[in-house]
Amino acid sequence: MSALSATPVESPEPPPVGAGWIVALTLGVVAVFASWFGPLQILLPAQADLIAGPGGREGLLALVVGTGAAVALVANPLWGLASDRCRSRLGTRMPVVYAGTAVGVIGQVMLFTASTGPLTLAGWVLVQLGLNGPFAVLAALIADRVPVAQRGIVGSLFGVGQIVGVIAGTVVAESVGASAVGYLVLAGATPALLVAIVVADRASSATTGGVPASVPRDRVARGFRPTRDYAWAWLLRFLMNLTNAVLLLYLFFFLDEVVQADDVAGSVLIVTVITLVLSAVCAGLTGAVSDRFARRRVFAVAGALTTAGGLILLALATTMPVVLLAATILGLGWGLFIGVDMAIITSTLADGATSGTLLGVANIANSLPQVLAPALAAPLVLSAAGYPALYGVGAVIAVAAALCTLPLRSVR
């Protein structure tokens, strides 16, 4: 890695993207996140409970989730690098989508058959390893194809796709009664939804000679040059995703042990839908407004501080009405942040020729929190302080995220 450069290097602006391309990109994101968060929200906790039972389920879940996230840390930037270097008849980045999807589907089928901790761990590792391939490509396509003036709305819809994917995956898991059949449903839906971006990318590549629109031919894959602003934007994303991981990891157990919900899986679904529907609406509006006024930082700060408020309320919650109020606040906060997250990170890229690699490294900020969250959460939850301490620490992390916007110079 070279030393951090002070400012990004300007790349030629690609032409505006159309509604069909944006929809295709969003569907691809939905596919990946449904396959990640249906298991994370319901299927994996239920499987851990079935295999290890009370007293062992927390440890097994932490091991499976943490190991899978550790694999994702390495897989995403490597897939991004591979997509930067890929120049073939199958497309400039699409071979990574094909290979990664195949590996991910194999992992989903393995999870369907898993009846022991090691098999569950192996299946989840394959899901994380594989699906980080298409996710790395989907992020890189924004830098390739989308002009700066559209990155607020396209980036916000990238975030909305994540939200819809979380909801869809959770609905699938709940609809099959938290059973392993959910893995098979996701194994079929994932490649079906990713077909759209494959077709759209082929059409777009035909107009640029097969090379990503923002990458001059003589500068393809020439180096790795992160900027100082990129480092701060990475840290902002990391901290916000850490708050989200803290929230989600033991939500199933929190609603069971503290709130004592009658239907835990159903309560997880309700909280998830409230939080993420509000996030989606807020993110879409935020992206459009941030494009209109060319301002990103104010929305990131507002999102981080609102998230902190929601986590503080959740730390005090013992009943479902308070949990639902906290979920509402958290939804608004997360929507404000993801509405500008992708626009912020892409504005700090040093060079369009390495966008896949840089965005792959940026995506580590999505997966690293899943590695750290179990190490952070388990001791707090198992201590006398319990869940209030966990969500209080999450609020502090969100405030730290807001402070990361202060050093940004290339982002208004």
From TrEMBL:
The keyword Cytoplasm does not apply. PANTHER family: MAJOR FACILITATOR SUPERFAMILY (MFS) PROFILE DOMAIN-CONTAINING PROTEIN, PTHR23528. The keyword Glycoprotein does not apply. This is MFS transporter. Keywords: Membrane, Transmembrane, Transmembrane helix. Residues 24-412 form the Major facilitator superfamily (MFS) profile domain. PROSITE patterns: MFS. Coiled coil: none annotated.
